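Bug report (template v2)

What were you trying to do?
Predict the complex of my protein with zinc ion.

What happened?
Run completed; filing so the output is reviewed.

Input:
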Amino acid sequence: MSLILRNVEVEGTGGLDVRLADGRIAEIGAHLAAGGEALDGRGGALIPGLTDHHIHLLALAAQADSVDLSAVTGPREMRTRLAEALAARPPGAWLRVTGYHERIAGDLGRADLDALAPAHPLRVQHQTGALWMLNSLALARLGEGETPPGVERNAAGQLTGRIWREDAWLRRRLSAPPPPLGPIGRRLAAFGITALTDASVTTDESAAAHLAAAVRAGDLPQRLTLMSGGPMEAPADGAFAVGPLKVLLDDHALIDLDDFTTRIERARRWGRPVAVHCVTAGELALTLAAFETAGARPGDRIEHGGLIPPAAISQLKGRGLTVVTQSAFVAERGDRYLAEVDRAEQADLYRCASLLAAGVPVAGSSDAPYASPDPWAGIAAAVGRRTRSGAVLGGVERIGPAAALGLYLGAPDDPGGPPRRVVVGSPADLCLLQVPLAQALAEPDAAVVAATFVGGRRVHAAS
Ligand SMILES: [Zn+2]
């Protein structure tokens, strides 16, 4: 089983051939002898596959498997969108719809939804997230028994289909299967991504089993690392690796320092580093204090680093902490930050260049579905720091395009570490570009990805 990539650029040298065998790079040279399958690289760069160091796969899959109505303007367009989605599903299969607002078609009850979806259980979420609207087939799936106060009933005691703020109860009662991962596995492969770290604190045994099954089935062709909020064991077949213990802070109800250090100590007993969600300055201050008390070790990470005051930079460096950032937030939410964040704090938003200059390791990621999963959009945002409207946010935090790509080239267990390399002996987790690297970086765009390989196996080829 071997594959030769002909005429590719490797680490700045064009016109080379690269042989992949047994999952690794076996040979690099000019005009390698034929043998096995061959693929013409047409002068494009062969670079290490990209790693998304912070993503939420099940949420991204649920979003991809749902109909989003937030841009829909009227009842006719809504009916068309739902009819298309229903036609693609066998009768009885769930349809999840998000982003509904009364301006589309008024208040919806179960009879309206039955007319829209007579053969499928349907649940529609209001744009505010406070209300779910279910049709009769969906209500039947909730089963019998007492219902909590948010489940609305009419004067006759019948269920109206409207359920207010009962998400936890709904999740327990709905027997909806987890969303399919194949579509997002393919989409991420088309970006050149060969490794993923899922940062969800909620990943439990059943979520991990679902993700592992998707890896085994080839639906998720990437190498997978899972964080979790509790204990987690890696399967014997290596379907996923166990990553850091995730600590999720909520600025409105910060956990106390004792609880925090207890969690860090527990992670140490399990031999795991710690990854802490830090979006605000308050969350970061508490996190730095917790690591001061419990001690930091290599691999500990700050997720997001949404607001990093200047004084915190040397503390991050001193504790050896890595910042796993999402530059795409600058593009996608930057206009809102410019309008809503204190002027004095705007320079602290999603820092990059100042962290690197201080010797703090920085890694790139998407936080998808909360921002675009496209790493090339993240690279462009790290380079330009432009918001959607074209304004610049934190111009001094700009980094060069090669450094921006480098944010995605660290190993999954060493985010922000040295970029992996295309050398003989390294794993054949690779991304082949349509053009030489300098040309690709002049205007970062996912369209430059020609093919993606994981363990020497092609998992994406541009059409
Ligand atoms: Zn996240």
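What did the reviewer find?
The mean pLDDT is 95. The two ends are 24 Å apart (CA to CA).
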